Amino acid sequence: MNNVVAAIVLVFAMILGATVWFLGSTRLSPEEQLQPSELSPELSEKLDRIVEQQSAMSRRLDQLERGPGVASSPSPNLQAITDAVADRLANRSPKDISDAKVTGAATESAAAREFDLSAAVQKLSAPDLSAADRRRIMEQVAELGLHDQFIAALEARAQQDPRDPDVQADLGEALINKLTSGGVSQLEVMKLATRADKAYDQALDAESTHWRARFNKAVSLSFWPPITGKQPEAIKNFETLVEQQRQMPASDQHAQTYLLLGNMYLQQGQTEKARATWREGLERFPRDESLKSQLGN
Asked: Are 102 and 180 in a shared domain?
C-alpha cells in the first residue's frame, strides 16, 4: 500500500506542478485586459479542468492513506480547500493575475540581485567547504532560479582551468541541480544529464581518484532509464570507488558507496554480492544505520 500511496503522491505533485506552470505561462490578450471582472472562456475552462483533476486526485490519495475498507468520500478539509481555490480562481480578474505575476517577479528579482553569484562560485573552491555548505549553495541557486547564470559562471571558470577537477565536478553538480529542480522538459533532462556526465569525465581525466566526481557520476548513471544501458557503467564506477576508498582515509560519506553499490547488486538479483558489499561497508562504518538496516541488524 505504501508504494501505491507514493505513486499517487507523485502524480498529484505533477498535477500541482502543471497548475503552477499553466498559471505562470498564460498570457492575457488585450481584450481580456479590458474586462477585469472576467477570465476568458478558454482560461476558465482550463482552470476548471485542473481543479477537477486536483479534487479527484485528492479523494483518491485520501482513500489510499486511510487503507482498505474505507469509503472513498473526499477528505472534508481537502475538499474545502479545493473548493475555495476553485472559487478564488473563478473570481480572479485578469488584473489580479497580472498583479500577482508582477509582484512575485519583482520579489524574486530583488532576491536574485542580492545573491552574489561570483562569491558563490568562488566559495565552492574553498578546501574546507563542507558538504552541507555546498548543498546550501546549490539550494540557493535553485530557489532564486539562477541555474543558467550559475552554470555559465562555472563553465567560464572551467574554460580558464580545464584541468581543475574540482571545477569540473562543481559544473556537473550545477547541471544536475538544474535537472532535478523541476520544470525541465524530457529533452533538456537528457541534455543536462549528458553534459553533467561529460563534466565528471573531465574531472576524472584530470584526477582519477577524485571521489566527489566519481561518486556523483555513478549516482547519476544509476538514474538513467534502463533502456540506455547505463546501469552496468554505474556499477563499474561504484566498484572502482570501493577499491579506491580502501586506499583512502575513512570518511563517513564513503559508507554511501557501499550502500548504493549493494542496492544495485540487489536490483540485478545478486543478493549474496549485495550482502557482502553491505557487510564490508559496515565493517568500515559500524555506526552507519542505513547499512545496518540493509543487513537486518
From this structure: no
Cα 97 from Cα 92, distance rounded (Å): 7
- In degrees, to the nearest 5, what angle opens at C-alpha 236 toward C-alphas 235 and 237? 90
**Cα–Cα dist 281/261, whole Å:** 10
Amino acid at 75: S
Residue with cell 565536478: 169
Proportion of the chain above pLDDT 90, given as a percent:
54
Residue 216's nearest CA partner among 160, 166, 161, 144 is: 166
Radius of gyration of the chain (CA): 24
> For position 183, which CATH number holds?
1.25.40.10
Helix (H) or strand (E) holding 241: helix 231-245
State the total domains in the chain.
Answer: 2
**Whole-model pTM over 0.85:** no
